[in-house]
From TrEMBL:
<protein>
    <submittedName>
        <fullName>Anti-anti-sigma factor</fullName>
    </submittedName>
</protein>
<dbReference type="InterPro" id="IPR036513">
    <property type="entry name" value="STAS_dom_sf"/>
</dbReference>
<dbReference type="Pfam" id="PF01740">
    <property type="entry name" value="STAS"/>
</dbReference>
<feature type="domain" description="STAS">
    <location>
        <begin position="6"/>
        <end position="64"/>
    </location>
</feature>
<dbReference type="InterPro" id="IPR002645">
    <property type="entry name" value="STAS_dom"/>
</dbReference>
């Protein structure tokens, strides 16, 4: 059974925009995922937190590849190897669970809103 995709726009405590993603990313919801990743328009990096993602297929990876110019990713131990094998880790910063983009825990420093 597929776990529904959840998307929540937030900001880190330093003001950096972030997107918290949960569930499964696949061809059935890749368009929704892509829309959520649309650029901030001002060159600001968007932190994409995949900590709660249990599955990502090639459609989801394509969305990430299409947005390499303005994203960083926080990945869990299940997703991190997929990002490495796909080569995405060579194009963008990928943070593991032990250290998030702010040097703290992966989901640390995020506030809703």
């Amino acid at each position: 059974m597929t776990t529904p995709l959840t998307l929540a726009h937030t900001r880190r405590t330093d003001g950096t925009p972030a997107l918290i993603v949960g569930g499964e990313i696949d061809m059935s919801n890749a368009g929704e995922f892509a829309a959520a990743l649309s650029g901030t328009g001002d060159g600001t990096v968007l932190v994409v937190d995949l900590t709660d993602v249990g599955y990502i297929d090639s459609a989801g990876l394509t969305v990430l590849f299409d947005n390499t110019g303005h994203i960083e990713v926080v990945a869990n131990p299940l997703i991190a190897p997929v990002l490495a094998i796909s080569g995405l880790g060579d194009l963008i910063t990928v943070h593991g669970l032990d250290a998030g983009p702010d040097g703290g825990p992966a989901a640390g420093g995020l506030t809703t809103g």
